Amino acid sequence: MNYSRMRLKDNKKQIHSDKPIITIITIVLNGDSILEETILSVLNQTYNNIEYIIIDGGSTDNTLNVIKKYEEKIDCWISEPDNGIYDAMNKGIDIATGEWINFMNAGDSFFSYEVLNLIFGKKINDNVSLLYGDTIYRNHDRGIIHIKPAKIKYLWKGMCFGHQASFVKTNVMKLYKYNVEYRNAADYNFIFSLYNDGYKFEYISIPVSLFLLGGISDNNVDSLKERMEIVFKKNKNIYYILFYKYLLLAVKLRKLCIKIIGQSKYSLIRKIKWKIISLIKNI
Asked: So what's the architecture of 4-221 in CATH?
């Protein structure tokens, strides 16, 4: 497998001493058709103190050509085999030099070019370790859905906010990093650990990211089992156990339904369902 590494030495980002450096990390593997949109959403931010890092898992398509197209504006990119997405994310954390880290992976993007300026153009409380905002979800069935975070006290049920819509203090990320033993829910384990260890979270009421549904942890059985294991390490409340058993059953029933009626009919039913929900909300 080919290996390449590049780092721009003339990094002038730190001249803006009145603003924190925000490290944006993009993870990609064979994402030539979706990567450019992500890159542009970062490079076109009006906030001018960004460190941009791309970690490629050794793509064999046109991904490297897309990266090289913008490499003069990318602070660091690496292309080499890794042990999965969370291993790649940890590589990005090791390299990061900014005060805050955000993961905007291939296929996802910032909601607007003003996002970083809206968040970091003003003073952030020193005791806050994690900032999070709203997520705009995109997929073929539901179109575009604006999701506001659930109350953080319900984190035991799952991610209350989109991972791409969050910013974490770099020193905290370097301390915790991602536990690669979790192949599907290491991001959830990271957030859940911070919350249980008493780090301060702060909600910012703006759309932060456009998230492309279909990632490794989108409602699959393995992800649910890992989340359940993570939660039960902290608390084996019977209600928590029943909740996760119900979720696992629901996922299995959904797979059975798809097997019986086919993916296209199932997708059509879901599309109709979400249209009805949307109509009800607007009444």
From this structure: Alpha-Beta Complex (3.90)
